[in-house]
Amino acid sequence: MRRLTWLVLAVYVIPGLAWGPEGHRLVARLAQGMLTPQAAARVGATLGPGETIASMASWADQVRTERKETESWHFIDIPITSSGLEMQRDCPHHDCVIAKIEEFRKLWRDETVSPAARREALLFLVHFVGDMHQPLHCADNHDKGGNEVQIEFFGEPTNLHRLWDSGLLGRLPDEDELFLDLRRAITPERRAEWSRGTVEEWAAESFQAARQVVYGELPKVPEGALPQLGEAYKRAADPVVERQIEKAGVRLASILNEMP
What we know:
Layout: H1 2-12, H2 20-32, H3 37-46, H4 59-62, H5 87-90, H6 97-109, H7 115-132, E1 150-153, E2 156-159, H8 160-167, H9 175-185, H10 188-195, H11 199-215, E3 228-229, H12 231-256
Parallel strand pairs: 1-3
Antiparallel strand pairs: 1-2
Helix pairs in contact: 1-8, 2-7, 2-9, 2-12, 6-7, 7-12, 11-12
């Protein structure tokens, strides 16, 4: 049933989404458990009745179609053939995921803005920190974030972006079991290490994962043939998916724990 679920999602997913709803919920659930009491109270006071950062983690995707200006906020195009991030080249208009995380980070901490603006800043932050940790949201290989790379995964047709959004997660344990596994993997040492650094440095990690694993592990095939991905690709990709979601949860919590 879980395998069927991700295949259905793969058909209807909006191009350019990162992790899919399950991945974004996992990031938010991990972060929620690492909030200080003060930060948890601020989050609760900012959200509406019955809302949690996990339940609202995909809000930014849901408003994309009606708020076209937000589409570019979900990613940054770092050329896969480059040596790495250059903000002037890769985000010249300050409308990429890195710039928007910093913008909404400031708004979230600013208690002089309206409650509605702070709520929106919080929801964008929750989502964009997750987006930035999906490797294909920090790399540009002239293929629309992998959407134009057609593949077969265990014999089922999909594309590279959909695979990293939901296909790989769909073959991991179900969400609640995976959440427990990911939470156990976040040791105090890892939490301290991953909380350090800048947003630019975090994006650079995603870029390297895209180069080395997302594209680096693709088998070479004749022109026009579909790459056949299976157990070997899954073995290389699964640890990246798990680690990136863990890091996103830690770093989201670190941002939300910042006091005004």
